[in-house]
């Protein structure tokens, strides 16, 4: 098995991020998909997708997928995204594990729709 396991001090939010160089425009559609499993997960675990136009300062669009808390088996989590950014050129996916327990993350993908 291969998965990410974010560890750190108790009550500290752990974070994993990946940046993608991708040209896009307003109206582009994506599906964020990931599998997560948890053991006593607390806080506010979530996955965030940020869409940027590097010609403009700051993040132009951010969408959030709240992840479950508590203890649970692996399950697929998905979020449909419609870009509102015209002329985007970078997408960042950030997974935050919450502040307690163990969150295992596997098979993270951001799939564009034609």
What does this protein look like?
The chain has a four-stranded antiparallel β-sheet with strand order 1-8-3-6, with no helix packed on it. A four-stranded antiparallel β-sheet has the order 2-7-4-5, with no helix packed on it. The relative contact order is 0.42. It is mainly β and 114 residues long. The model has no long low-confidence stretch (mean pLDDT 86). 0% of the residues lie in helices and 66% in strands. The termini are far apart.
Assembly classification: single chain
Distance between the termini: 32 Å
Mean pLDDT score? 86
Number of helices: 0
Shape: elongated
List the topology elements:
Layout (H helix, E strand, L loop, with lengths): L3 E2 L9 E10 L4 E14 L3 E7 L8 E6 L3 E13 L5 E9 L3 E14 L1
Antiparallel strand pairs: 1-8, 2-7, 3-6, 3-8, 4-5, 4-7
Brief synopsis:
By secondary structure, the protein is mostly beta strands. The chain has strands at residues 4-5, 15-24, 29-42, 46-52, 61-66, 70-82, 88-96, 100-113.
How would you describe this structure in keywords?
about 110 residues, mainly beta, 4-stranded antiparallel beta sheet
């Amino acid at each position: 098995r291969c998965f990410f396991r974010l560890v750190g001090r108790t009550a500290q939010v752990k974070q994993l991020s990946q940046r993608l160089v991708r040209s896009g425009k307003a109206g582009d559609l994506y599906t964020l998909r990931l599998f997560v499993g948890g053991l006593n997960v607390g806080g506010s675990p979530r996955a965030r997708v940020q869409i940027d136009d590097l010609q403009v300062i700051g993040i132009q669009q951010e969408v959030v997928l709240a992840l479950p808390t508590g203890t649970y088996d692996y399950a697929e989590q998905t979020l449909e995204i419609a870009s509102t950014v015209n002329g985007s050129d970078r997408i960042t996916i950030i997974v935050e594990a919450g502040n307690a327990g163990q969150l295992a993350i596997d098979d993270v993908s951001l799939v564009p729709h034609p």
